[in-house]
Amino acid sequence: MRTKILLLGAFIGLSLFSCSSDESTADSTAVNTNDVALTAKIDSSLEDIDAITEDQFSAQLSLTGRIDGDRKSILPSCATITTVLTNNVWTRTIDFGTEGCTLANGNIIKGKIIISFTNDFNTSTHSISYTFEGFYHNGKLIEGNKSISYTKKTTTLLQEIHPVLSHSIDMTITFDDGKKYEISGNRTREMVEGYNTPLEWEDNVFLVTGNANITKKDGTVITCEITNPLRFEMSCHSPFPVSGTKVITKNDSTATLDFGTGDCDALASLTIDGVTTEITLRK
């Protein structure tokens, strides 16, 4: 059985995460479309944060002379960057202001992301960490921290040596209605295309895998697992993956979200209780 609906308020951006109501007693309902929509909003925030952080690490690498030529950044012109080197640690502060900056994919951000990493770019593995200062993504307050392990290696997804970024997440997201969600998990972003053209970012393609737990104020835990790598193509200028599958679980019930077969669109297939619905994702 297939039907078609419009899923409002959903940004499906990289990869994981969900939530629904925020009541004082535990939510005993089965997973539903509201859970999926809120998962999408959190996903969109995390994907943009990851992309910005990785972009700025590469930008500093370029400034050290290890990449020749003018590098194109994903940051909008309204962002201000301050870089400080202290005790062999680079700290890059990206300030998006208090009015908000619009990214190429249409998402609006404001506040600061503060990124730190060591000055030793000759090592095979780099540790990157970042925190937030008054940072909002589409009106949601983001707090907490993330750490990234950056290395170049072969994997089961691609036998060529390519950049692999492993993310550890421990964050809090507060929506504009005051509802707060604790998010923990791990995910891996592999740049499977575009890594041989470091001056461009529009030819970059990422495959994302991983899982996460989302804990609501009432104690309800929702899990998300990427069961087929999510594929993000920067040339799409979209917060949506072009393909891949993830499973959302709450109270032993599940929903499966399939992002399609490679088109740059806002379509996905949502399956709950054996019923598959084609959804059009909107901001």
How is this structure best described in words?
It is a single chain. With 283 residues, the chain is mainly β. It has one domain. 12% of the residues lie in helices and 50% in strands. It has one helix and 15 strands, in the order βαββββββββββββββ. The chain has a 15-stranded mixed beta sheet that branches. A hairpin with a 2-residue loop joins β6 and β7. The longest helix is centred in the N-terminal third of the chain and has 34 residues. The N terminus is likely disordered.
Low-confidence segments, given as residue ranges, are 1-23
Average pLDDT works out at 85
Strand content: over 45%
Q: Summarize the main sheet.
A: 15 strands, mixed
> N- to C-terminal separation?
27 Å
Q: What is the overall number of helices? A: 1
**Structural class per helix/strand content?**
mainly beta
Helix content: 10-25%
**Number of E-type strands:** 15
Number of domains: 1
Specify Rg, calculated over alpha carbons.
19 Å
Element order: H for helix, E for strand: EHEEEEEEEEEEEEEE
Shape: globular
SSE map:
Elements: E1 2-7, H1 33-66, E2 80-86, E3 89-95, E4 101-102, E5 108-118, E6 125-137, E7 140-153, E8 162-174, E9 180-193, E10 205-216, E11 221-233, E12 243-250, E13 253-261, E14 267-272, E15 275-281
Parallel strand pairs: 1-15
Antiparallel strand pairs: 2-3, 3-5, 4-5, 5-6, 6-7, 7-8, 8-9, 9-10, 10-11, 11-12, 12-13, 13-14, 14-15
